[in-house]
């Protein structure tokens, strides 16, 4: 059986005295093949240099990769500063025949690259001879230009001080990485240091920089991926055991390939995809992107990776163009101009074939078009590696086919695409299929039509039945097949896994501005909701006027009734402002957070917009309230209306912040709203005006916003000075009045301070909850 015709080759790029001398292609095949390197003419690779021995080294192509052996040469072979006798080469390895401590003028550099038919990787070089400063960036004025949207205009620079070179990041949005670590300060460069900017790898070579220019997609290798999880059988009290949900999966996806991940429900497709894109790390195994350990270089590569989750990552009420423009501003480097953004937005609209619909509000689009809009959001950053979780779910057969054709087109243009799908009718548009059986067992990996032959069925749908019943059998059968031996030979192995760290480098202030503008727009668009929120306060004032007299502040009892209602209303209005504001955009949040969204700008953009809303609600309340009720006249700060306004605003703001914190914790919008009574009822019970608070109940009441609001209003209206009706008729002796209701400015300030404290505490809780969610 002829598995496939795709080829992978090893390429040696040889530099002599700093100049490109030759490139040698070495084919991978099942038979061993040797390439001798040396000065003598009987070598396959002849290098006429005094520092090369006549028979210097042997490169041997084996089924599992390329090995190099030193033939007892005088000057040896050095990799990463170490002299080696024999080693299996990894993509991007630099071999030197040279003096490690003091590079020789005749020094020889050999770069090993693993390429495939689709790859058009080229190596360029920049001599560092005369210049004192060399720049790297997107603009053409840079010494090394990298035309990719993840790269800033002036991204990084290399400076010279005598014979020493230093690397500096130029406040780029996506960061500069040196040997896998983010460059945060001016860092000295040493020979063979590897710099990553965007998707370009640059190697510092004392007198020059060599760098790869890769316009096509990325190759991805998954190596022995295993995922074990805790499995509690038999309910809460049963003992915990370990369950394997990914069972030693290795696959190799070449650049520009479209690969479908298929299998029954619960087979492990999402878990495997999350291992490939680094969202959830496996228990064992690793993933290589273009030969680099993806997990330890996660920060360097995450910006060239796109991910479209199953749920749409768009706001329904924005137009396609508005949604894409905000997303572009958030995701593209800070120095991207408005024109560049507008052009990029237009390009992706064209890519996903939504031309003519760009000014429609997203909720007016069909299911397929909505999905295209989600894909467009991810295409903005021009990802080379693209993951999609069931992009065809919910689409009719026609739309499903169009979606698969669109993905085919994108992969033809150089993106490596991996998608979870049940759209088996269009599987032949894919280059490969990964078929998973239960327990994350790899039952097949190879060309889709090969799968029909392998499972001996006529329809892809029949495969589900077979693997659902006998995953173990098909996993074993696959391991014995030609597909397994072919693809397994392509997978690069022997790389250690390290823990990843996340960083986001774009300006917090800029994010705050973009997020605030977007949130304001979303708030203003929903006019019905906005009107409802703004009219609540006057509505409550009108209702009050029905049950309470204009002169309610004459007596103690009636004053208390009004204060109780106002404090409770302010808390309620605040909670309604924000309870759903984070939960309702969970999907967009999660995706933006995975790319570069910062927590503080996110939460403060909400606080800013909701703060303005609260301010307007407070003004509306005071105006309406003073129409229906006579406010007392003896103010502590000069105006009773201002005192009431401040108290109402601070109370509503504290409740808004509390609502936001609860919104970060609730799983979805319905659950958040379900919590509203639980939050409000304690405010009614513990405000101190209805029930006497002592001991434990007093302790709990400290957590009720309404208690401090009630106190502040009571101080303003001088509650202690109001007689009860019986007192007026001199039927009872004067009461024992609580000091905290005294008409004193310091007490008023104290309560305002506590209300502000509630807001601050809730904001901190929101940030902590979102931070904790990152780890889930
Ligand atoms: N953290 C976890 N702890 C316990 N079990 C887990 C965990 N994550 C996943 N699983 C289980 O592993 C199996 C594979 O889950 P996964 O979501 O990857 O499957 P899937 O093939 O994507 O399913 P579907 O098509 O239904 O989305 C399921 O049985 C799931 O319940």
From TrEMBL:
Its main location: membrane. It is a multi-pass membrane protein. Residues 35-84, 134-183 form the FHA domain. The chain crosses the membrane at residues 530-547, 562-579, 599-624, 644-662, 674-693, 752-770. It is found in: Membrane. Keywords: ATP-binding, Membrane, Nucleotide-binding, Transmembrane, Transmembrane helix, Transport. It holds the Pfam family ABC2_membrane. Residues 220-464 form the ABC transporter domain. InterPro entries: AAA+_ATPase (IPR003593), ABC2_TM (IPR013525), ABC_transporter-like_ATP-bd (IPR003439), ABC_transporter-like_CS (IPR017871), ABCG_transporters (IPR050352), FHA_dom (IPR000253), P-loop_NTPase (IPR027417), SMAD_FHA_dom_sf (IPR008984). PANTHER family: ABC TRANSPORTER G FAMILY MEMBER 28, PROTEIN SCARLET. This is FHA domain-containing protein. It comes from Ectobacillus funiculus.
């Amino acid at each position: 059986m002829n598995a496939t015709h795709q080829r992978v080759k090893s390429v040696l790029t040889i530099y002599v005295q700093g100049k490109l001398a030759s490139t040698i292609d070495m084919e991978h095949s099942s038979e061993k093949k040797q390439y001798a390197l040396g000065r003598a003419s009987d070598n396959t690779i002849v290098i006429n240099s005094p520092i090369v021995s006549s028979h210097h080294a042997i490169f041997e192509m084996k089924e599992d990769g390329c090995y190099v052996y030193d033939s007892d040469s005088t000057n040896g072979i050095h990799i990463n500063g170490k002299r080696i006798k024999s080693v299996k080469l990894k993509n991007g390895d630099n071999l030197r025949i040279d003096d490690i401590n003091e590079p020789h003028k005749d020094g020889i550099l050999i770069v090993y690259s693993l390429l495939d038919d689709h790859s058009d990787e080229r190596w360029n070089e920049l001599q560092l001879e005369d210049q004192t400063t060399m720049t790297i960036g997107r603009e053409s004025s840079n010494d090394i230009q990298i035309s990719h949207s993840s790269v800033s205009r002036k991204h990084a620079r290399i400076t010279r001080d005598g014979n020493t070179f230093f690397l500096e990041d130029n406040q780029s949005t996506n960061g500069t990485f040196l040997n896998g670590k983010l460059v945060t300060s001016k860092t000295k460069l040493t020979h063979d240091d590897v710099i990553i900017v965007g998707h370009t790898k640059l190697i510092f070579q004392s007198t020059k920089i060599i760098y790869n220019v890769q316009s096509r997609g990325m190759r991805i290798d998954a190596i022995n991926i295993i995922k074990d999880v805790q499995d509690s059988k038999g309910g809460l009290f049963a003992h915990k055991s370990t369950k394997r949900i990914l069972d030693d999966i290795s696959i190799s996806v070449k650049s520009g390939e479209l690969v479908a991940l298929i299998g029954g429900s619960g087979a492990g497709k999402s878990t495997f995809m999350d291992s490939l894109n680094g969202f959830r790390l496996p228990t064992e195994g690793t993933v290589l992107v273009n030969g680099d350990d993806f997990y330890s270089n996660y920060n360097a590569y995450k910006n060239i990776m796109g991910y479209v989750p199953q749920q749409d990552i768009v706001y329904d009420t924005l137009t396609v163009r508005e949604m894409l423009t905000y997303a572009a501003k958030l995701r593209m480097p800070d120095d991207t101009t408005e024109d560049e953004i507008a052009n990029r937005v237009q390009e992706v609209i064209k890519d996903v074939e939504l031309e003519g619909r760009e000014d429609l509000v997203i909720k007016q689009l069909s299911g397929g078009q909505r999905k295209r809009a989600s894909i467009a959001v991810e295409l903005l950053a021009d990802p080379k590696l693209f993951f999609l979780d069931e992009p065809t779910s919910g689409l009719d057969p026609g739309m499903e086919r169009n979606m698969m054709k669109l993905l085919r087109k994108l992969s033809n243009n150089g993106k490596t695409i991996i998608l979870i799908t049940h759209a088996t009718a269009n599987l032949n548009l894919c280059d490969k299929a990964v078929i998973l059986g239960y327990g994350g067992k790899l039952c097949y990996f190879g060309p889709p039509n090969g799968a029909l032959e392998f499972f001996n069925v006529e329809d892809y749908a029949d495969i589900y039945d077979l693997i659902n019943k006998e995953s173990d059998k098909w996993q074993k059968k696959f391991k014995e097949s030609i597909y397994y031996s072919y693809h397994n030979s392509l997978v690069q192995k022997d790389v250690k896994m390290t823990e990843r760290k996340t960083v986001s480098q774009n300006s917090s202030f800029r994010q705050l501005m973009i997020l605030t503008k977007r949130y304001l727009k979303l708030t203003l668009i929903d006019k019905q909701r906005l009107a409802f929120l703004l009219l609540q306060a006057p509505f409550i004032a009108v209702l009050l006027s029905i049950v309470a007299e204009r002169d309610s502040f004459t007596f103690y009892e009636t004053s208390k009734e009004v204060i109780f209602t106002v404090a409770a209303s302010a808390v309620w209005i605040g909670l309604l402002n924000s309870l759903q504001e984070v939960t309702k955009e969970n999907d967009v949040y999660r995706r933006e957070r995975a790319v570069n969204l910062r927590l503080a700008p996110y939460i403060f953009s909400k606080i800013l917009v909701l703060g303005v809303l609260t301010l307007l609600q407070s003004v509306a309340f005071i105006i309406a309230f003073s129409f229906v009720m006579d406010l007392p006249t003896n103010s502590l700060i000069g105006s009773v209306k201002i005192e009431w306004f401040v108290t109402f605003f601070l109370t509503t703001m504290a409740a808004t912040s509390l609502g936001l914190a609860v919104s970060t914790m609730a799983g979805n919008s319905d659950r958040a709203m379900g919590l509203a009574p639980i939050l409000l009822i304690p405010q009614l019970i513990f405000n101190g005006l209805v029930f006497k608070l002592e001991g434990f109940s007093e302790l709990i009441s400290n957590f009720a916003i309404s208690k401090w609001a009630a106190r502040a209003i009571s101080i303003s209206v001088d509650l202690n000075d109001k007689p009860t009706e019986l007192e007026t008729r001199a039927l009872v002796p004067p009461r024992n009045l609580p000091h905290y209701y005294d008409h004193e400015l310091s007490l008023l300030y104290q309560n305002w301070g506590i209300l502000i404290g509630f807001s601050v505490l809730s904001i901190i809780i929101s940030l902590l909850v979102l931070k904790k969610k990152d780890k889930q």
